[in-house]
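Still learning folds. Look over my entry:

…
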Amino acid sequence: MLIDEIVDSFKNQSRPNIRWKMVGDMYKRIDYIQKTFAGIETITEFGPFQGCSTAAWLSLRPKKFVTVDQGVSLDVDLYKKAAEEIGVDFEFRIGNDIEIDIDPCDLLFIDTVHTEDHTYKELKRHSNQVHTYLVFHDINLDRFDTLKGINKWWKDHPQWILKYQDFEDCGFMVLENKQGNL
């Protein structure tokens, strides 16, 4: 399957035309994503960039996958073809994630502008559309201010509990909605 080939090429860092320094550590998180989020039916991704996280999420074979970015670094045609092959309803949207609306989803992955203000605005605007998981890349405070925005929002949303967090390299975090509904 094409999606498996794409995932493998990220995991072993053989994917052509990728700026590997810009991928960060996302390729190291693919196994965790596949193990932890199997069975998720609807995923929205903010910030696909070159497609490493996109490949990981698509490999879960959700029913619906929407990815949003302000520009196009992603090989959209390749990912559409991979999604079609595995029966995933795939949508790529160009837009500013703090200005658009999203449909309800089981999981929202955020890897965009790593500032406190932007992350807070993303969560304030979209968290009410997320049933189960909020997932974040680039939370390491030594390098990014993403976690400051998460914490600012989180203090007023106690129904979201910490499921996973690490600060290795870029950092990764998962919040789970204990209410589990919208």
